[in-house]
Amino acid sequence: MGAGKSTLGRHLAQVLGRPFYDSDKVIEERTGADIPWIFDMEGEEGFRRREQDVIDELTRLPGIVLATGGGVVTRAENRRHLHERGLVIYLYTPVDVQMARTRNDRNRPLLQQDDPGSVLRALFEVRDPLYREIAHEVIPTSAGNMKKVTEQVLSCLHQDGR
User: Fold this and answer.
1) How many angstroms separate the CA atoms of 155 and 132, rounded?
2) Domains of the chain (ranges plus CATH)?
3) Global pTM?
């Protein structure tokens, strides 16, 4: 959360001349509702079911750039599809940086709590090992320099031959 997946993904897709998909946006387009509303109506479990279907579908598309929601790794099937069907780059972002980047964002249902910092720390403890499990590369994003991160991702793609 707050790693810059969507921003970097759009930029990378433009540089590569490839289609870009943001799994959260695809879910919103298909349901006609935003993510907070889906969480309110269906809970996190309902949202995760929708997300799993979308990830299965999108990871079958060739030559795309895909940005996912931060919790995508909580389901084993998503982890398997992402790792086996694409090159996964984990944009590592420490909790203090996530806090600064998401502080005023009302479109993050899991952070609508009295202490979003403790929520981010708890999510990080669960998700960081899962991202590391499926990542082909880990790239830190703390500095927030999109040009540098883009160059690192392009280097990974070049080394991987994709």
Assistant:
1) 19
2) 5-150 (3.40.50.300)
3) 0.87
Note the helical H segments in 17-145: 23-31, 35-58, 76-85, 95-102, 116-134
Question: Which among 25, 32, 33 has a CA at the least distance from the CA of 51?
Answer: 25
Burial class (CB in 10 A: 0-12, 13-18, 19+), 158: exposed
Owner of token pair 């707050």: 2
> What are the tens digits of pLDDT across the range 104-145?
666 666 667 767 778 889 989 999 999 999 999 999 987 768
In angstroms, the CA 103 to CA 108 distance is 10
Neighbours of 3 (CB within 10 A): 23
Instruction: Spell out a b/e string for 61-79, using b for 16 or more CB atoms within 10 Å of the CB, else e.
Output: eeebbbbbbbbbbbbeebb
Structural tokens at position 29 = 């387009």
Angle at 36 (CA atoms; ends 56, 124), nearest 5 degrees: 70
In sign, the C-alpha dihedral spanning 39, 140, 93, 135 is positive
